[in-house]
Amino acid sequence: ETGVTQTPRHLVMGMTNKKSLKCEQHLGHNAMYWYKQSAKKPLELMFVYNFKEQTENNSVPSRFSPECPNSSHLFLHLHTLQPEDSALYLCASSQEIGVQYFGPGTRLLVL
Amino acid sequence: AQSVTQLGSHVSVSEGALVLLRCNYSSSVPPYLFWYVQYPNQGLQLLLKYTSAATLVKGINGFEAEFKKSETSFHLTKPSAHMSDAAEYFCAVSDARGAQKLVFGQGTRLTINP
Q1: β-strand partners of A45
Q2: Chain B residues with CB-CB distance to A48 below 8 A
Q3: What is the pLDDT of residues A9-58, one digit of tens each?
Q4: Angstroms from B17 CA to nearest CA on chain A
Q5: Which of A79, A110, A102 is nearest to A6 (CA)?
Q6: B43 vs A41: CB contact, 8 Å cut-off?
Q7: How far is the C-alpha of A68 from the C-alpha of A88, rounded, in Å?
Q8: Would you put residue A90 in left (φ > 0), alpha (ψ -120 to 50) or beta?
Q9: What is the distance of C-alpha A54 from the center of its chain?
Q10: pLDDT tens track for B19-31
Q11: Which residue from B43, B46, B94 is facing A104, i.e. has the nearest CB?
């Protein structure tokens, strides 16, 4: 596979569940990102990893827990989410300032 | 702090007409500016970028944008709209000093009428 892949593409979970989103990039990039995209709101940057080190946490609630085991993989662990956390979660990778390659996203619904 | 403002959350044009999507930025340092496009059920894709070279930047699919420092603008244009241009368009700004963050505008949904 090429580019940035995300699994699962769709996820429905209850507020007491624990689930994980996975992102994989096949581009050899050093930086990876998690974004949240909600209807009628700007794209929200959640986390930035650079060479596996977290360099940005944009005041994200602790019920979202990122993990970056290597430069190619990024996870977002979810637990005790709220209905307002329902959104499209996008992963991206980058090697050049401002040029980011996005995955197709995971559409999350919290019931 | 850097920010971008996209004027108009929804723009509708006829097929073959000029497309103009507006973006104004705010930055305390020389900015890098970008336009991204998002088609339904997909992630964002880079259309074009300005990184302090030529002020008129050409991108993919016939789009171009002009950096105007005096107006703090980076509007996106296409001379003739095609049905396949229907999508959401995002303007973004980055810190030219090297930060890898992008700050996105709220997006403009472009609809093409046959």
Answers
A1: A35
A2: 100-101
A3: 999 999 888 999 999 999 999 999 999 999 878 899 999 998 888 888 88
A4: 27
A5: A102
A6: no
A7: 20
A8: beta
A9: 13
A10: 999 999 998 888 8
A11: B43
Alpha-carbon distances of B73 from B56, B58, B112, rounded to whole Å: 12, 16, 24
* Tens digit of each residue's pLDDT (9 = 90 or more) over B36-81: 999 998 999 999 999 877 899 999 999 999 999 999 999 999 999 9
In the DSSP assignment, the letter for residue B30 is: P
Contact A65, A79 (CB under 8 A): yes
Name the minimum distance, in Å, from the CA of B42 to any CA of chain A.
5
Per-position DSSP letters for B46-78, written without gaps between them: EEEEE-SS-SEEE-GGG-EEEEETTTTEEEEEE
- Residue A72 Cα, gap to closest chain B Cα (Å): 17
At residue B97, the pLDDT reads 60
N- to C-terminal Cα distance for chain B?
Answer: 41
Round to whole Å and give the CA distance between A79 and B29: 39
CB contact under 8 A, A100 and B46: yes
